[in-house]
């Protein structure tokens, strides 16, 4: 039996490839499925099953395209109700993949259909658990997502189900089992996941707060629900796509890979409701960009910030990218369900400049310049990091408006006085700058390098207060 984790860092996602004696199975695949097909071909194996641990909220799974391209059977756990052909397994049902066995263990809590798959090798030895969002390394799945799709599934009910699943289904299993979760640190599907992406179940029983053996159900529920942040707005939209089905990625790529001249791009932007999305770096964007475009850099947590900041997965999009990264941008948009890319600017931003089109810029200052202004002019400063980051450490006397709340707090950005923006390193503050520019603000500067660079100057007072909520 061969088991491999296929990890995608930009969305902190882990899919799994299982192969035995010429047959293969994929667990929780991403939207682009060719890498899984190629992996099986390398082993001369046929993909027999696509196992889904649950209806994912943070990405659109590739299960449907894998089924269409390979003939594989899609398998969900008990209670799942997909709107397409799939096997809805029973608790404890066994599936053969070559000479090994996959056992279904229904573990509701994160969602009602959430299922863990126990891997049993060709010798009958229990090897590992593919846990989806039921059990992470150092954490467990948040229980508040399903209620955004089914109202009467309260987070308290789901937390109670998860407690029972962990105690009755997972914790009695052997300590030497390898835990293979669906996500690692950086995912919004949990609160405090480890950077490690696998561990033994025995080690998790010792160190995972949620598996403490003497914890009561009430204590578990309270602990699990404390400190939960509001889930990103695209989560319920992705869940519905995974339940109801979606358009093939091949069609999305054919539509999106449409090169547009500067003239054609401008016409499309004027004649449609498309958002102009610029995926270049913050540094390049600041030097010049198409008016009203939004900057979300491809070299960062791109898909997550697209989902946070672009309302509605059906939004039409026109792309400005570094040359050669157009296809990558379309794929990474599709991972979170943004399937309506209408085309891209051929030749990138340089083509726009060469056509003598209007451009805008964002003024930036260095951390040294910030320190000088801060100590001599007492400027208005707005920090767009998360509240937990701000509470942990920040420049004294500045205002915190987290990036994902900016549209609800625009009135707090002054228009009659200059101000300074910063985040941790410059990625998020440039996204904020692009939004403000598109809404008419032009009286601010951004700090290149953000808080990290500011702190390194050691020239401004920094608070190191730690908010108790960040310790949970």
TrEMBL record:
<dbReference type="Pfam" id="PF00753">
    <property type="entry name" value="Lactamase_B"/>
</dbReference>
<feature type="domain" description="Rhodanese">
    <location>
        <begin position="375"/>
        <end position="463"/>
    </location>
</feature>
<protein>
    <submittedName>
        <fullName>Glyoxylase-like metal-dependent hydrolase (Beta-lactamase superfamily II)/rhodanese-related sulfurtransferase</fullName>
    </submittedName>
</protein>
<dbReference type="GO" id="GO:0016787">
    <property type="term" value="F:hydrolase activity"/>
</dbReference>
<dbReference type="InterPro" id="IPR036873">
    <property type="entry name" value="Rhodanese-like_dom_sf"/>
</dbReference>
<dbReference type="GO" id="GO:0046872">
    <property type="term" value="F:metal ion binding"/>
</dbReference>
<dbReference type="InterPro" id="IPR036866">
    <property type="entry name" value="RibonucZ/Hydroxyglut_hydro"/>
</dbReference>
<dbReference type="GO" id="GO:0006749">
    <property type="term" value="P:glutathione metabolic process"/>
</dbReference>
<keyword id="KW-0808">Transferase</keyword>
<keyword id="KW-0479">Metal-binding</keyword>
<dbReference type="Pfam" id="PF00581">
    <property type="entry name" value="Rhodanese"/>
</dbReference>
<dbReference type="InterPro" id="IPR044528">
    <property type="entry name" value="POD-like_MBL-fold"/>
</dbReference>
<keyword id="KW-0378">Hydrolase</keyword>
<dbReference type="InterPro" id="IPR051682">
    <property type="entry name" value="Mito_Persulfide_Diox"/>
</dbReference>
<dbReference type="GO" id="GO:0016740">
    <property type="term" value="F:transferase activity"/>
</dbReference>
<dbReference type="GO" id="GO:0050313">
    <property type="term" value="F:sulfur dioxygenase activity"/>
</dbReference>
<dbReference type="GO" id="GO:0070813">
    <property type="term" value="P:hydrogen sulfide metabolic process"/>
</dbReference>
<feature type="domain" description="Rhodanese">
    <location>
        <begin position="270"/>
        <end position="361"/>
    </location>
</feature>
<dbReference type="InterPro" id="IPR001279">
    <property type="entry name" value="Metallo-B-lactamas"/>
</dbReference>
<dbReference type="InterPro" id="IPR001763">
    <property type="entry name" value="Rhodanese-like_dom"/>
</dbReference>
């Amino acid at each position: 039996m061969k088991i491999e984790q296929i990890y995608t860092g930009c969305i902190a996602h882990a899919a799994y490839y299982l192969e035995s004696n010429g047959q293969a199975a994929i667990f929780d695949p991403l939207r682009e499925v060719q890498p899984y097909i190629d992996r099986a071909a390398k082993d001369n194996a046929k993909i027999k099953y696509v196992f889904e641990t649950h209806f994912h909220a943070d990405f659109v799974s590739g299960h449907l395209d894998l089924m269409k391209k390979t003939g594989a059977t899609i398998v969900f756990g008990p209670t799942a109700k997909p709107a397409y052909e799939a096997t809805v397994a029973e608790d404890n049902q066994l599936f053969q993949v070559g000479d090994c066995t996959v056992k279904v263990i229904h573990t509701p809590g994160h969602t009602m259909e959430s299922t863990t798959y126990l891997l049993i090798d060709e010798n009958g030895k229990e090897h590992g658990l593919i846990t989806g969002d039921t059990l992470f390394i150092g954490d467990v799945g948040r229980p508040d997502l399903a209620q955004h799709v089914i109202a009467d599934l309260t987070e308290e009910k789901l937390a109670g189900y998860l407690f029972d699943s962990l105690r009755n289904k997972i914790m009695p299993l052997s300590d030497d089992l390898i835990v293979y979760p669906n996500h690692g640190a950086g995912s919004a599907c949990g609160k405090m996941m480890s950077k490690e992406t696998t561990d033994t179940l025995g080690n998790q029983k010792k160190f995972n707060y949620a598996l403490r053996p003497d914890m009561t159900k009430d204590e578990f529920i309270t602990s699990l629900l404390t400190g939960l942040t509001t889930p990103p707005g695209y989560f319920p939209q992705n869940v519905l796509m995974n339940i109801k089905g979606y358009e093939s990625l091949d069609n999305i790529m054919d539509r999106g890979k449409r090169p547009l001249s500067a003239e054609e791009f401008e016409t499309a932007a004027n004649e449609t409701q498309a958002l102009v999305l610029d995926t270049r770096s913050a540094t390049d964007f600041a030097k010049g960009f198409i008016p009203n475009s939004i900057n979300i850099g491809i070299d960062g947590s791109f898909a997550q910030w697209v989902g946070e900041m672009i309302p509605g997965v059906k939004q039409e999009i026109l792309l400005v990218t570094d040359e050669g990264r157009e296809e990558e941008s379309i794929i990474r948009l599709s991972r979170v369900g943004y399937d309506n890319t209408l085309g891209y600017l051929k030749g990138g931003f340089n083509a726009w400049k060469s056509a003598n089109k209007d451009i805008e810029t964002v003024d930036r200052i260095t951390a040294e310049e910030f320190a000088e202004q801060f100590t001599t002019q007492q400027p208005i400063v707005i920090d767009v990091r998360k509240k937990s980051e701000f509470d942990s450490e920040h420049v004294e006397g500045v205002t915190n408006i987290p990036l994902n709340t900016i549209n609800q707090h625009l009135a707090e950005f002054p228009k009659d006085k200059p101000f300074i923006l910063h985040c941790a390193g410059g990625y998020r503050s440039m996204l904020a700058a692009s939004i403000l520019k598109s809404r008419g603000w032009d009286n601010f500067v951004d700090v290149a390098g953000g808080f990290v660079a500011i702190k390194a100057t050691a020239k401004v007072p920094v608070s190191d207060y730690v908010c108790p909520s960040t310790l949970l």
